[in-house]
Write a structure and sequence with these properties.
By secondary structure, the chain is an alpha+beta fold. The protein has three domains: about 5-115, Orthogonal Bundle (Butyryl-Coa Dehydrogenase, subunit A, domain 1), CATH 1.10.540.10; about 120-230, Butyryl-CoA Dehydrogenase, subunit A, domain 2 (Beta Barrel); about 235-380, Up-down Bundle (Butyryl-CoA Dehydrogenase, subunit A, domain 3), CATH 1.20.140.10. The protein contains 13 helices and ten strands. The strands form three sheets. It has a four-stranded mixed β-sheet. Strands 2-3-7-6 form a four-stranded antiparallel β-sheet, with no helix packed on it. A two-stranded antiparallel sheet has the order 9-10. The two termini are about 40 Å apart. Bound molecules: flavin-adenine dinucleotide. Flavin-adenine dinucleotide (FAD) binds near residues 157, 209 and 364.
């Protein structure tokens, strides 16, 4: 049992930290305040090859594993930045890699690896069905050499900052399938070629995620947009979930480490009642507690990533890592905010921005209740609630 990173993994961490150092607090504060997309940061990461590390070498990527991807995203969030700006490229890439045709992979992956194309959007969530994905109502009907799509999606991040979008839609109505997880399909939508039938409306939320509502009204997609087999889409999405959980956990751990570092530093400098506030256990212990929780979540996350890279089952570890990491990060966020007192609310300290961002990871891309249901039902064998 060896818990240390390899020299190469340490080098990756340092290299990503060096890129992030060029984008200090003020950069992220301004991007957040303006609701802007961090183009320069994403360009710098792309240039360094960090966004394509999961793409195999034969398609122009670095062909590295989940452990290395986890290190990259943790370091971005630990620096004070937000990996969400570009994480979809790692989260969603797996669907294309594992289930896309050779033609799709040759057509898109090399350009994605070079940063010429962005695959940043993934459209699953719908307003009326939420976490109950198998009941989604967006329909894609085959008409000759095309599919015609009608329905609505909500909270879809970065559609306007993306060239490509993965879309999950029903190709066989729910009433006609025996197993409700069947009959859904994934499409790789080339947003540059969309002629009509797609309206994108920005949806204001409390984090800078460029979320949008999508109104699909007769959107025509060439049949070649289908990824893998028709009807298997939900299975493909499930396949990618372990990777997603590990990567979300890594972003949460990065956030948590940022909060603990900033909280401990501030508590060691600020003096009230004639002593450093960090000497008070009411300030010190929550930060210490959060640090311990983050270390534990990090070990579980690396265990999950190692199993993933070895091609072994890692569902329980990946889910538990996501749960514990997002909780630890939220505890760290609260400890840091409390340590800062009123200054935690002042934009110039960046705590309130990271606080908003950290909360999201308990809820999206999957809520912790769904993770607990997975652990309770799939790991512990208790009865299903849905
Ligand atoms: C900033 C942001 C960005 C997002 N980006 C994307 C994106 O790019 N693509 C995309 O497809 N989606 C995206 N989402 C959507 C996100 O994945 C969903 O919000 C999330 O999955 C929860 O779905 P919901 O909001 O419909 O909640 P609901 O499903 O309505 O659930 C509400 C609450 O009830 C709980 N709940 C529901 N059923 C049960 C149950 N059986 N047992 C216990 N608890 C239950 C849930 O856990 C949750 O806490 C984004 C959301 C946000 C806020």
């Amino acid at each position: 049992m060896d818990f240390s990173l390899t020299e190469e993994q340490e080098a990756i961490r340092r290299a990503v930290a060096d890129v992030c150092a060029r984008f200090p607090d003020q950069y992220w504060r301004e991007v957040d305040a303006a609701g802007a997309y961090p183009d320069d940061f994403v360009a710098a990461l792309t240039e360094g090859g960090w966004l394509s590390i999961l793409i195999p070498e034969e398609y122009g990527g670095a062909g590295l594993g989940m452990t290395e991807a986890a290190i990259v995203l943790e370091e971005i969030n630990r620096s004070g930045g937000n990996g969400a700006a570009c994480h979809a490229q790692m989260y969603t890439m797996g669907t294309l890699l594992r289930h896309g045709s050779e033609e799709q992979k040759r057509r898109y992956l090399p350009e994605i690896a070079q940063g010429k194309l962005r695959l940043q959007a993934f459209a699953v969530t719908e307003p009326t069905t939420g976490s109950d994905t198998t009941r989604l109502t967006t329909r894609a009907e085959r008409r000759g050499d095309r599919y015609v799509v009608r329905g609505q999606k909500t909270f879809i991040s970065r559609v306007r900052q993306s060239d490509l979008m993965l879309l999950l839609a029903r190709t066989t109505p729910l009433e006609e399938v025996e197993d409700r997880t069947m009959g859904m399909s994934v499409f790789l939508v080339d947003l540059r070629e969309v002629g009509g039938g797609l309206e994108v409306r920005p949806l204001e939320v409390m984090v800078n995620h460029h979320t949008c509502e999508l109104f699909l009204d007769g959107l025509e997609l060439p049949a070649e947009s289908l990824v893998g087999e028709e009807g298997m889409g939900f299975r493909y999405i499930l396949d990618g979930m372990n990777a997603e959980r590990i990567l979300v956990a890594s972003e949460a751990i990065g956030d948590g480490r940022w909060f603990v570092e900033r909280g401990a530093r501030y508590a060691s400098e600020r003096e009230v009642f004639g002593r450093k506030i960090g000497a008070n256990q009411g300030v010190q212990f929550p930060l210490a507690q959060a640090h311990a929780e983050l270390e534990a979540a990090s070990l579980l996350r690396f265990q999950a990533a190692t199993l993933f890279d070895q091609g072994r089952p890692c569902g329980p570890q990946a889910n538990m890592a996501k749960l514990l990491a997002s909780q630890a990060s939220w505890h760290a966020a609260n400890a840091c905010m409390t340590a800062h007192g009123g200054y935690g609310f002042a934009r110039e300290y960046d705590v309130e921005r990271k606080f908003r961002e950290a909360k999201l990871l308990e809820i999206a891309p999957v809520s912790n209740n769904m993770i607990l249901a997975y652990i309770g039902q799939r790991v512990l064998g208790m009865p299903r609630s849905y």
